Amino acid sequence: MKNIRHILGKELKSYFIAPIAYIVIAIFLLVTGWFFFSTFFLYNQASLRNFFSLLPIIFSFIIPAVTMRLFSEELHVGSYEVLMTLPLTFWEVIVGKFLAAVMFVMIMLLPTLSYAVTIAVLGRLDLGPIVGGYIGAIFLGALFSAIGLLASALTRNQIIAFIIGMSICFALTLIDKMLFFLPESLLGVLEYIGADFHFQNIAKGILDSRDILYFASASFMALYAGNLVMQGKK
Amino acid sequence: MIKVENLSKHYGEIRAVDGIGFEINQGEILGLLGPNGAGKTTFMRILTCYLNPTAGTIRVKDLNIKDHALEIRRMMGYLPENAPLYPDMLVYDYLRYVADIRGLDREAKRQRIDQLAATCSIKEVMHQAIGELSKGYKQRVGLAQAMMGDPEILVLDEPTSGLDPNQIIEIRTIIKKIGKEKTIILSTHILSEAEATCDRVVIINKGRIVADSPIEELKQSLGKESLIALAFRNADLAAVRAALGPIAGVAAVEPGESNDGILAVNVTCRTGEDIRPQIYAAIKKQDWQLLEFHQQFRSLENIFRELTKEN
Fold it and tell me: Which of B82, B84, B98 sits opposite A86 (nearest CB)?
């Protein structure tokens, strides 16, 4: 557990040493802010629904950019060899890096709380969907971080890691919107696989155990696959 | 302390390590010699539990690398080739991070970092980013990292590769100093380095051991075989062979690099005896102009070349 904390601390600090963290956060806030406030006054509703409906798509691009360096950079520089000869287990390394990415996503979401404060000033705010939305955003961020981490473990090239991660996240976001192409028998399964479907459920303010189970199990599966990829490098 | 048992590592058809076996004693500085691609790095990666072997195993204090990787890593410090460290991190932050993972408490961590900064002479760069350091400093930071947990065994992969002569001497001095207390396994393809720092050398070629000997023994065995280089004017090879060949202790009389009417001849001596007087006496009887006469002992370089050359 201590080692996970040390890796988490090191990775989180690494994000903020390099300019990439500030660039990613700035782009995220710019994009979400623009899309949210450009239509906010047209709808005349005191809610963050628009913001949360856009979040999965934006996360599909942003989070793989956050996670792409986690293993790829280590493999490229060679520091992975030093890391894996320290008294650490694969799981400690993976979980430490994963939690660092999730923490980064939470830090990235923090400034967006100002949107909620702005809305609360302008009108009567329904807290349920907002709290649900942020909890869902953390679950979604965790899943995409786990996928990004897996993509990063697959290659030493950060750009390729980003493209792989983004493609999977994008597919999981859009899969339940493509259902009209597919046979009826597959609808239930594919809808369940879609991350956006579960996120939107939570963002309504309803914490259903099925949605939580989906995010927990899918994140675990991605991390487990990452573990297998690392084991395969031995 | 370390027992390598029939160890192999294959990458598809390539046999990077091919059934090697030897033992490393406690407190020994072992040099792994071999040309590039001989399998030195692969062996070290297996020893440090970074790679799994295809067959065979290594036991460190009776602990098998397959089942006790964490325990073995705890007693081992490893510096890979070219010291691949995090370029964005400050030296101090990096050493603190390694100390945390090595389980040092606050006070022990502070003391150990100070101690290693002094041992490895990195005090003046402690607050610089690793990426900004010269290769020599980076190597020293890597060495400090490897020694952080006060490991019983240090594994150093080409610790002086790419350094300038002054840096090489500094790193060698550090290794010698540490080697008084620790077991050190270092790989190199620089023979003078092995000669200067190691107690024993294992020469690997194409994944197999071709020599395993204490450095002193190797030097003695080399010293026994010598070569006398001669150069004459007014002489021909057949006559020189006829005159010098029958002398007791002469193994061969071979032509050297002759030019401008000068005949160069190399006389290989079979025994450890000094046969220069007999050779000189034989030459004196002839009507040759002797231009050069000097004895050369076979160097480590010679034996390394012989053991590792193709075919």
Answer: B98
Hey, are the CB atoms on A85 and B76 less than 8 Å from each other? yes
pLDDT of chain A, 234 residues: tens digit per residue? 788 999 999 999 988 888 888 998 999 999 888 887 777 777 777 677 778 888 999 999 999 999 999 999 999 988 999 999 999 999 999 999 999 999 999 999 999 988 888 888 877 777 888 888 899 999 999 999 999 999 999 999 999 999 999 999 999 998 877 777 777 777 777 778 888 888 888 888 888 888 899 999 999 999 999 999 988 888
Q: Is the dihedral angle over the CA atoms A14, A15, A17, A19 positive or is it negative?
A: positive
Tell me how far CA of residue B271 lies from CA of A124, B224, B227, B300, in angstroms. Answer: 103, 6, 11, 18
As its CATH architecture, domain B225-308 has 2-Layer Sandwich (3.30)
> CATH 3.30.70.1710: which residues of chain B?
225-308
Quote the minimal CA–CA distance from B214 to chain A in Å.
29
Domain B2-218 classification at class level: alpha beta
Please count the residues of chain A. Answer: 234
Question: How many domains does chain A divide into?
Answer: 1
A23: containing domain = 2-232
Q: What CA–CA distance (Å, rounded) separates B5 from B25?
A: 15
Show the tokens assigned to A159. Answer: 């750009």
> What ipTM did this prediction achieve?
0.85
Chain A residues close to B53, C-beta within 8 Å: none
- Under 8 Å between Cβ of B213 and B201: yes
For chain B, the residues whose C-beta falls within 8 A of a C-beta of chain A are: 45, 48-52, 70, 73-74, 76, 78, 80, 82, 84-89, 93, 97-98, 100-103, 142, 145, 149
* Chain A residues whose beta carbon lies within 8 Å of the beta carbon of residue B150: none
Test the B interface: residue of A5, A72, A86 with most B CBs within 10 Å: A86
Distance CA B71, CA B82 (A): 26
CB contact under 8 A, A87 and B51: no
